[in-house]
Design brief:
- The complex is a heterodimer.
- Chain A has two domains: 115 residues, Nucleotidyltransferase, domain 5; 143 residues, ATPase, nucleotide binding domain (Nucleotidyltransferase, domain 5).
- Chain A has eight helices and ten strands.
- In chain A, the strands form two sheets. A five-stranded mixed β-sheet of chain A has the order 3-2-1-4-5.
- Chain A starts with a strand and ends in a 5-residue tail after the last helix.
- By secondary structure, chain B is α/β, with parallel strands linked by helices.
- Chain B has a domain of 141 residues: Rossmann fold (3-Layer(aba) Sandwich).
- In chain B, strand 5, helix 11 and strand 6 form a beta-alpha-beta unit.
- The mean pLDDT of chain B is 94.
- Classes of the chains: A alpha/beta, B alpha/beta.
- Chains A and B meet through helix 2 and strand 8 of A and strand 8 and helix 15 of B.
Chain lengths: 263, 382
């Protein structure tokens, strides 16, 4: 029995196909302007790679911003619940999940059975989201991957006074003009990102184990800085790409649905 | 029938207001639920709750207010500046909160800068922040000052007999709304939370006798209507909300807002005004004492008890504690409500939003959906 999860996010779209609790195939693409176009494309790619058609998928759950606009899903579930579900599958001992996506970030707490106890999302602006890092990396002419790695080489990270993405961008330009080493600026950017996220995470109260999902979980600079600021170890997800955690959660919900209820 | 209420609650200068004005009668707007409608009813004036609904930007509001101010008074001033409140013959401002108090100064200044932005009668009505013997006395005097000002400006006489008649009409309305509330909290309510808010809001914009007639018909019809089944039951608490669209977004296909504690909602009709004794004193006592707004000091425990009672009575599955950005009163109190209600195993979700056009629906819906999923998970576990 094949089950699928389709996570249409603001920056990337992800699809996962599972069979008997194992991932058969997964795909990440850049999102298009229309969520249904992103959903169709990512699903077609993942089905092709798995050598399947939509008819083979017994159940499919959609999540992400575009979840209500996907024609082929049987049910839509919020990305908060899906990230919780996916994170627990990836790290069975997890009780706190920190997810930083393209344009939002969230923290959620689970009970010992994986049920959502509490959650919070950013509600003010893009600060503390993947878009923040993307903007800063672009100004510094770096790839997103490089931005994360550079933190380790920094000796004196800069401090950003403002939480505003636009003003922080102006600060980055100022530091570049002042010939501040790029490693120190990159570390400052990662620290600023971690700082926004730690405020949110502390708000719901942390419980061990803590893990991070979403694209930013692949940025070691942010994860290390966040670990330091929260004073708690963050378990690294190595089983799968943490960016597909939401799609995994959606696929797990789909499998439960196909099996007639929660398992 | 519900169409009448929706129209009256979503159009500022609705057909009832237009008909009232056509007859040459006056309309006075007020910004806060602490202003007794009965005073205007007794003067033959239509009381109209001023709203910010329908503002599509805040360019005028932003000019007069600072950036760190709740967007509700900004939207009100925006509409005033755009001439949308030109049908008002007067406006009453209260110090409901600091942002709302500043509307007094900002509207007066805008009135000097923009022709026709301010009505000819403009009154600041002081409301104490405590409910004590001496504050009721002070508030009664302030209410007499308001009455005198209305009498002088509009050349009318507000007699005790007319006040008592108005109190009786409004109490009848409150009794009807109690019946309406009982239907709303049924296990299978015959109308949605969106419709419920439309019914309540219409009462702030319509002549009271017509409203009572319409409300009675609505209740009779609802009593025979089939109920809505299998929804997660939510209670909406916090900052002012006069947008039925917000409730629609929250309810979606899975939830129903079956109770609230909002000043544009059930707080508007809670408790009767005493019909014996000095009518000005009785009005002052009810409006100051039974409004349950966090602007009142030292009254948190009572407000918490009210929420707990509502949760029990309406079989609430979850409480949405929302506040408009920069609303210190509700923002702070929602945090304490969340702590205390969650400790009693009542699921809560805090939501900060901007007042005005519903532009954040995607993110808001995602959070409400997750909250509903959290509640459903609890049910499955139970």
């Amino acid at each position: 029995m094949f089950a699928a999860g389709c996570d249409v996010g603001s920056l990337t779209s992800k699809a996962v196909i599972m069979k008997d609790g194992k991932i058969i195939e997964s795909v990440i693409i850049k999102s298009k302007a229309r969520p249904w176009e992103s959903a169709d494309e990512v699903m077609n790619i993942v089905l092709n790679r798995a050598g399947l058609t939509m008819k083979d998928i017994k159940s499919c759950v959609g999540t992400g911003y575009g979840r209500d606009k996907i024609s082929f899903v049987h049910e839509a579930v919020s990305e908060i619940a899906c990230h919780g579900k996916g994170a627990r599958w990836l790290v069975p001992t997890v009780r706190t999940v920190i997810d930083i996506g393209g344009q939002d970030c969230k923290a959620l707490r689970l009970d010992d059975k994986g049920n959502m106890v509490k959650f919070i999302t950013n509600d003010k602006c893009a600060s503390g989201t993947g878009r923040f890092l993307e903007v800063m990396a672009k100004v510094m002419h770096l790839n997103l991957d490089e931005l994360g790695e550079m933190s380790a080489k920094s000796k004196q990270p800069v401090t950003f006074a403002s939480a505003c993405t636009v003003w922080a961008q102006a600060d980055v330009i100022q530091h570049l003009n002042d010939r501040v080493p790029i490693e120190d600026i990159a570390a400052g950017v990662n620290n600023a990102m971690a700082s926004r996220m730690s405020t949110l995470a502390n708000n719901i109260g942390l419980e061990r184990d803590v893990c991070m999902t979403g694209g930013v979980a692949k940025n070691s600079g942010v994860v290390n800085a966040l670990e330091k600021q929260l004073g708690i170890r963050i378990k690294r997800i190595r089983r799968e790409d943490p960016q597909i955690a939401g799609a995994i959660g959606a696929a797990l919900f789909a499998a439960e649905k196909a099996n007639g209820g929660a398992k | 029938m519900i169409k009448e209420f929706i129209e009256a609650s979503t159009a500022l200068n609705n057909k009832y207001v237009a008909a009232w004005k056509k007859d040459g009668k006056k309309v006075v707007g007020y910004t806060c639920s602490y202003v007794p409608d009965e005073i205007f009813h007794a003067a033959g004036i239509l009381p109209f709750r001023v709203r910010g609904f329908g503002a599509t930007d805040t360019t005028i509001g932003d000019t007069y207010f600072g950036p760190f101010i709740c967007s509700l008074p900004k939207c009100m001033l925006q509409l005033a500046g755009e001439g949308k409140f030109n049908f008002l013959d007067g406006a009453i401002i209260t110090p409901g909160c600091d942002s709302m108090r500043r509307l007094d100064e900002c509207w007066r200044k805008a009135g000097k800068d923009i022709e026709g932005a301010i009505p000819s009668f403009f009154f600041h009505y002081g409301v104490p922040h405590k409910y004590e013997d001496y504050t009721i006395k002070w508030f009664t005097e302030e209410t007499r000052r308001l009455i005198a000002a209305v009498e002088e400006h509009f050349n009318v006489k507000i007699t005790d007999a007319n006040l008592k008649k108005a109190i009786s009409v409004y109490n009848e309305s409150r009794r009807l709304l109690d019946r309406f509330e009982a239907l709303r909290t049924l296990d299978e309510p015959p109308f949605s939370g969106e419709e419920a808010l439309a019914v309540i809001l219409a009462g702030t914009t319509m002549p009271r006798e017509e409203y009572n007639t319409l409300l009675e018909e609505f209740i009779a019809q609802a009593e025979k209507s089939p109920g809505i089944k299998n929804r997660v039951r939510l209670m909406l608490v916090g900052s002012a909300n006069d947008d039925i669209g917000l409730v629609r977004v929250m309810e979606g296909e899975k939830a129903l807002v079956v109770a609230d504690n909002l000043c544009f909602g059930s707080r508007f009709y809670t408790d009767q005004v005493g019909e014996n004794g000095d009518p000005v004193f009785e009005l002052s006592k009810r409006y100051l004492g039974h409004n349950d707004c966090p602007r009142m000091y030292g009254d948190y425990q009572r407000r918490l008890n009210i929420l707990e009672q509502k949760v029990k009575r309406a079989k609430i599955d979850g409480v949405v504690l929302q506040n408009i950005r920069f609303c210190d009163l509700h923002g702070a109190e929602n945090g304490i409500f969340e702590r205390d209600l969650e400790a009693k195993d009542i699921p809560c979700m805090r939501l900060e939003r901007e007042y005005g056009p519903l532009v954040e629906t995607g993110r808001m819906k995602m959070r409400v959906d997750a909250f509903i999923e959290r509640i459903q998970q609890r049910r499955e576990v139970a």
